[in-house]
Amino acid sequence: MRPWAALVVLLCGTFLANLDVFIVVVAMPALERDLGADGGQQQLVLAGYQLVYALGLAAGGRLGDALGTLRVFGLGMAVFTGASVVCGVAPTTAVLVVARMVQGAGTALMVPQVYRAARTLFTGAAQRRAYAAIGAVMGLGAIGGQLLGGWLLSADVLGLGWRAVFLVNVPVGVLALTLLPWAAGCPRPVRHGPVRADLPGIGLAAGALGLFVVPLVAGGAGGMVWWGPACLAASVPVGACFLRHERALEARGGSPLVPPRLLRLDGFRRGIALIILINCGLSAFVLMLGLLLQRGLDWSPLATGLGMAPAAVAFAGGSLLAPRLARGAEPRLLVLASLAATAGYAGCAATALGTDPRLLIGAVCAVGAALGLCVTPALSVTLRTVPDAVAGAASGVVSTAQQLGAALGVCVFGFLFFAQVRATADVVGAFAVTTAALTTTSAAAGVLARDLPRAAAPAGLREDVPGSPAPRDLPM
């Protein structure tokens, strides 16, 4: 096994997963023109991917525990790459929507394996550097999506138009699949116990998450749909049934989708809440910044991407710098970084109303750097107390929390943004008001991080589950 080589290959999945959330945004006008996609169909192209992605993450993480990280990652990358080809040649919007959902399924298999590898392959300072690399690649994929998408559309590469934003995934996917056996070191086949899929748990988890996420995504820019509150309310009892089922299955010696002992880890619970808050602000901020530059300041898609590039670099730099600054004191760094993000959001709100775009870009970079400093220690404090045998399940929960936070941020703050636009027809003013409101997410994260030093793993919870794969076992 070549740990760092394996992580680099796995990070290709993280990059593509985040890239494909944002790269498609700039292609919506071309889809409307070439395929006749109406507003609802465009929403399905955007939301179908994220819905399947979010709903499948917990199951994807558990499959990594049962079958091996690299094996499940390879399957997910193959599914994602094949679906990207179908997206790129789709003759109709219906085919494109279905292929995007299949892309989401592939992503749900890939992403949890990256966190599982960081948790089981590395220890100490090396593990913190691995989390830093994950955070940096997440930021580059998310913010760089609009830059790459804008360039592909402006350059009209090979005359492909919007199809290039999907086909660009294919060479990356093929390269990752080609390098995967080499990164694994061609290990001998490893015998695992029989896979005991928690099918009722998967169904209940998908139901609870679907009832929660679908109305948020379906509402889009127009706010909550009329049936949304009923779905949100129904997600609570379904979620309670899921937790009851998982506790009963664990008591019988089964393999629950989300082991309840994870939720008894105080550090894990607090870390999940922290991750939701960080991603809530980050996703809403990236969306509104793109809208401000394109609709408020009339920048082209390529210019918008270039304007967001410094923030991507700052985010990546903050993620890579975080382990050196933390040095085992992640909660303290989280508090300081959260305060910096709060000041950055406020700076963006103030400079957006000015006349010098350089000041705005400077404030955007400050937000990017501060959020980058938040991501790495948040992952570290959340996963460091997790037993190796359930690292995949924990990784699935972490990935799900990221997607839920993103959905919440886009829904809540997106609703506020578009309500301001409808009321005032002033995109710049709406950005300023909404970005000022984003300070609540980073401020709450800072308050939550203050109590993390007292969040330790209860005794006895770091033992492996009998019959589970051994730590650092990443079979093909």
UniProtKB/TrEMBL annotation:
<keyword id="KW-1133">Transmembrane helix</keyword>
<dbReference type="InterPro" id="IPR011701">
    <property type="entry name" value="MFS"/>
</dbReference>
<feature type="domain" description="Major facilitator superfamily (MFS) profile">
    <location>
        <begin position="6"/>
        <end position="453"/>
    </location>
</feature>
<feature type="transmembrane region" description="Helical">
    <location>
        <begin position="271"/>
        <end position="293"/>
    </location>
</feature>
<dbReference type="InterPro" id="IPR020846">
    <property type="entry name" value="MFS_dom"/>
</dbReference>
<feature type="transmembrane region" description="Helical">
    <location>
        <begin position="164"/>
        <end position="185"/>
    </location>
</feature>
<feature type="transmembrane region" description="Helical">
    <location>
        <begin position="224"/>
        <end position="243"/>
    </location>
</feature>
<feature type="transmembrane region" description="Helical">
    <location>
        <begin position="299"/>
        <end position="321"/>
    </location>
</feature>
<dbReference type="Pfam" id="PF07690">
    <property type="entry name" value="MFS_1"/>
</dbReference>
<keyword id="KW-0472">Membrane</keyword>
<feature type="transmembrane region" description="Helical">
    <location>
        <begin position="333"/>
        <end position="353"/>
    </location>
</feature>
<feature type="transmembrane region" description="Helical">
    <location>
        <begin position="359"/>
        <end position="383"/>
    </location>
</feature>
<protein>
    <submittedName>
        <fullName>Multidrug resistance protein stp</fullName>
    </submittedName>
</protein>
<keyword id="KW-0812">Transmembrane</keyword>
<keyword id="KW-0046">Antibiotic resistance</keyword>
<feature type="transmembrane region" description="Helical">
    <location>
        <begin position="72"/>
        <end position="91"/>
    </location>
</feature>
<feature type="transmembrane region" description="Helical">
    <location>
        <begin position="130"/>
        <end position="152"/>
    </location>
</feature>
<feature type="transmembrane region" description="Helical">
    <location>
        <begin position="427"/>
        <end position="449"/>
    </location>
</feature>
<feature type="transmembrane region" description="Helical">
    <location>
        <begin position="197"/>
        <end position="218"/>
    </location>
</feature>
<feature type="transmembrane region" description="Helical">
    <location>
        <begin position="404"/>
        <end position="421"/>
    </location>
</feature>
<dbReference type="InterPro" id="IPR036259">
    <property type="entry name" value="MFS_trans_sf"/>
</dbReference>
